[in-house]
Amino acid sequence: MTKLFSVLCGLVAALAWAVVIAIPVWFLITTMGAKVDLWAPLDAFRHVRTYAQYAIFGALGVGAVSLVVLIVSRFAAGVGGAGAFLGAILAVVIGGGGLMAAKSAQDAAASVPPIHDISTDLTDPPQFSRAMIERREQIEGVNSVDLLDKQVPDSDWTGQWGGRAVTDVQAEAYPDIETLYLPADPAQAYEASLAAARDMGWRITTASRDSLMFEGTVESFWFSFKDDFVVRITEAENGGSAIDVRSVSRVGLSDLGANAERVRAFLEAVRDAAGTA
Fold first, then answer.
1. Can you tell me where the transmembrane regions are (predicted)?
2. Hey, where are the domains in the chain?
3. pLDDT per residue over 201-221, tens digit each?
4. pLDDT of residue 160 exceeding 80
5. pLDDT tens-digit profile of 29-62?
6. What is the pTM of this model?
């Protein structure tokens, strides 16, 4: 009987450790592969979205069964070492952590509108350079940059936002995102804005002091999603300067609120850089 329990403990321990190693490796390879162009970010995201449920519940199942077998074996035959218990516990932790992460992502998606183009100016949004547009056009399935013509698809999952103009949806969902006015002249506002963007780690690809605009790209850590931004500074009607920023995801319908958060953070950073916080 002791031999049987020893064999069972060895099997469940091996299975638990296989799960502990395989699932994180699978996740890291899938999410990081886009950084070295092994596959497209959206393909990686869809892959994880499709198979994560199997990984999560598989880890929970293997971990739970392993723990039961190990506990019974320990009491019945005095077998089952610490390494086996550690593997089972880690499998449960990985499954539980994955479940929490999935729930968090689901809640985040439900709490924001399914849009991916955010601008402080919704009537005359900042425009990207021809060079940026050409870079975007090389990407299969890239999102349009024609903000004023965009509508949220009318489908079951877009809910109350479906069929509405993206500009109207943004105005309702993010009323705080608007043009930033500074008392500084446009040249000073340009330098403050450029410094803020660089301090935030944004990659600048075009910058023109003559045109008072700059643009570039921000890449997410997970999945390597790329969002393009453009910043425009103009002279305000009553003096000083007006700063407008726009951030647009290259692919995907919903950005899970990432572009809105980026724009908010940038505007706050500019206020700090200009000393008007």
1. 51-72, 79-102
2. 2-111, 117-274
3. 999 999 999 999 999 999 999
4. yes
5. 999 999 898 999 999 999 999 999 999 999 999 9
6. 0.89
